[in-house]
Write a structure and sequence with these properties.
The chain is of the alpha/beta class and 331 residues long. 37% of the residues lie in helices and 12% in strands. The strands form 2 sheets. Strands 6-5-4-3-2-1-9 form a 7-stranded parallel beta sheet, covered by helices on one side. It binds iron/sulfur cluster (2 copies).
Length: 331
């Protein structure tokens, strides 16, 4: 059997060693059911996942987070709704666990209270797409709120209409002194013109690769990730329900069980309900383009990437990308 050390030279082996001890155990938390936007295609609202009674007592949140820490969670991924509408809850997580906060960036977090909280700002394209899908050009506001912030990046969700037009958006992000990570829209509300065609995905893969070559200090990405997310294929296997690693442990009745995130849960804002997975409970898995689920899919399948040096390097790059995005290693 091939071993890691036999496949890698010293530089890559050192990179491997740096990530191999991280032992990331993430779970996802809906911090609130409310949002200051209502984007078309928002998986949270389109799947009705907001229809639980939100826990309002911050003490209950604190106790819950302590329990989660006791369960072995070492990465809290905060989503919503819009988490920054409930800063006391965000702070409760931050004080107890390594925490990442997804936000639309309309509200500026207080860096005096949360100096190194990793913030991922959602962005759905250029100004015109954002107006169609989200009702306003959020970049104009979020880029002012977070310009130059060393613990912030844009999570740029590319839509089919953006193919061929990504560069101006990346340039704006460069100018704001921020980083960017790309993922793809999963058109959960079937908005006309926003579903993917195979040829668009092919073109997009090349465009993503080109952007990474051109803006390596701004793009937090890897070409292998581009390949897997645009093709939905990894090592001859197709992404979908039978392969997805990001399924809540207590709802995972798949047989045989695929490699999955250990003890992963996605909790609703009532702190009792769990959702099926890291994204929409009503999404058809065969059309799912969730970026984190694809990254995790690669990460939990290390053994399959030990067939060759190139495969293992690809795996390391994706792991490093994830570790950077969630602040386990520096950019
Ligand atoms: S900002 Fe995020 S949570 Fe709010 S509606 Fe848009 S996608 Fe949904
Ligand atoms: S919708 Fe996506 S993330 Fe959720 S279970 Fe299906 S494949 Fe996994």
């Amino acid at each position: 059997m091939k071993t890691v050390s036999s496949l890698l030279d010293k530089e890559w082996y050192d990179r491997y060693k740096r990530i191999s001890t991280l032992n990331i155990r993430s779970s996802i938390y809906d911090v609130t059911n409310r949002c200051n936007l209502r984007c078309k295609g928002c998986f949270f609202f389109s799947s009705g996942e907001h229809q639980v009674e939100e826990e309002m007592d911050v003490k209950k949140w604190e106790d819950f987070i302590d329990q989660e820490k006791g369960r072995g969670v070492n990465l809290a991924i905060l989503i919503g709704g819009e988490p920054t509408l409930c800063m006391d809850r965000v702070e409760a997580f931050y004080k107890r666990l390594p925490t990442y906060c997804a936000t639309n960036g309309l509200i500026k977090i207080d860096r005096k209270k949360l100096p190194d909280l990793m913030v991922g700002i959602s962005l759905w394209g250029g100004g015109e797409d954002e107006k169609i899908l989200r009702g306003r050009d959020t970049f104009a506001i979020s880029s002012k709120n977070y310009a130059g912030d060393p613990y912030t990046y844009y999570l740029y969700t590319i839509t089919p209409r953006q193919v061929g037009k990504i560069e101006p958006v990346i340039k704006q992000i460069v100018d704001a002194g921020l980083k960017v990570h790309l993922q793809l829209l999963s058109n959960d509300e079937s908005v006309d013109g926003f579903s993917w065609q195979t040829s668009e995905l092919k073109d997009l893969r090349h465009e993503m690769d080109e952007m990474l070559d051109k803006y390596p200090r701004t793009m937090i990405s890897s070409k292998y990730y581009h390949e897997v997310i645009t093709t939905g294929m990894m090592m001859g296997r197709r992404f979908g329900w039978n392969e997805c690693p990001s399924v809540t442990e207590s709802m995972d009745n798949r047989k045989p069980q695929p490699r999955r995130l250990i003890h992963f849960f996605r909790w609703a804002a009532d702190l009792k309900t769990v959702h099926r997975c890291c994204t929409s409970a009503t999404r058809d898995c065969s059309t799912c383009k969730d970026g984190a689920a694809h990254m995790s899919w690669i990460m939990v399948n290390k053994r399959e990437h030990m067939k060759s040096t190139e495969d293992l390097k690809n795996w390391i790059e994706v792991y490093e990308m994830f570790a950077k995005l969630y602040s386990f290693i520096p950019w």
